[in-house]
Amino acid sequence: MFNSVMERQRAGRLGAGVWLSIGVHAAVFVAVLFISARPPPPAPEPDPFEGRPWVVPMSPAAPQGTPAPAQPKQAVKPRTRRDTAPRQVQALPAEPLPAEPDATSSLTDEQAASSDDGATGHPAGSTDCPPVDGPIGVTDVLMDQLVSSYSQTEELHPFGPGMTPPVMLGGQPIAYTPGALAAGVEGTLVAKCTITVDGQVKDCRVIKGLPHMNEAVLESLHSRRYRPVTYQGRPVSVSYSFTVKLKLPR
């Protein structure tokens, strides 16, 4: 009895498994039929440019042949500047620099003095402007005649080329001062003065001085009279540099 019950249960289990297997196979079969019944996907459209050669546009080539050479440009001739020169140019002398001891345009006086008794001596050297021999009265007459014969002008010019050098007509000699004698002063003194159209010397100033001798030299220069400096045939007032050499007697 027990065996019959067990076999019934086994038969029931076997029947359920068979039906389950059949259902699974049927589902698989239906799925296969469904998949196979679907229409195939459409084929891709062919590329219209596939298999065709690519055409690259080319720029037009330059025309062959030798180009004509460019014509050279003609050089522009520089225009000649024509300046009208004045018919007559009156050159004025340039301002001279202070004269050196050896300058030819300066007057040189060598002053000698007696060292024994301290008395003032007289010039003992050569000068570029020697005084005119003769009495002072004759010198004054000659000076008046020269002044009256020239056309006078008061314009001051620096002494320069083209001018006649002044000629000394007279004046007080340079005298050593006691202080200069005691100190044994020697050397060169440079002074700048104005020589007027009538030969007078004025407005002197010392450019290069010496101890104890500046005032004495200026006093002597102011006392001098000169033949006027002329330029283009006319007497003119000039600014003139005097170089005075002072030397003690040996």
From TrEMBL:
<dbReference type="InterPro" id="IPR037682">
    <property type="entry name" value="TonB_C"/>
</dbReference>
<dbReference type="Pfam" id="PF03544">
    <property type="entry name" value="TonB_C"/>
</dbReference>
<feature type="region of interest" description="Disordered">
    <location>
        <begin position="42"/>
        <end position="137"/>
    </location>
</feature>
<dbReference type="GO" id="GO:0055085">
    <property type="term" value="P:transmembrane transport"/>
</dbReference>
<keyword id="KW-0472">Membrane</keyword>
<feature type="compositionally biased region" description="Polar residues">
    <location>
        <begin position="104"/>
        <end position="114"/>
    </location>
</feature>
<feature type="compositionally biased region" description="Low complexity">
    <location>
        <begin position="61"/>
        <end position="77"/>
    </location>
</feature>
<keyword id="KW-0812">Transmembrane</keyword>
<feature type="transmembrane region" description="Helical">
    <location>
        <begin position="12"/>
        <end position="35"/>
    </location>
</feature>
<protein>
    <submittedName>
        <fullName>Energy transducer TonB</fullName>
    </submittedName>
</protein>
<feature type="domain" description="TonB C-terminal">
    <location>
        <begin position="175"/>
        <end position="245"/>
    </location>
</feature>
<keyword id="KW-1133">Transmembrane helix</keyword>
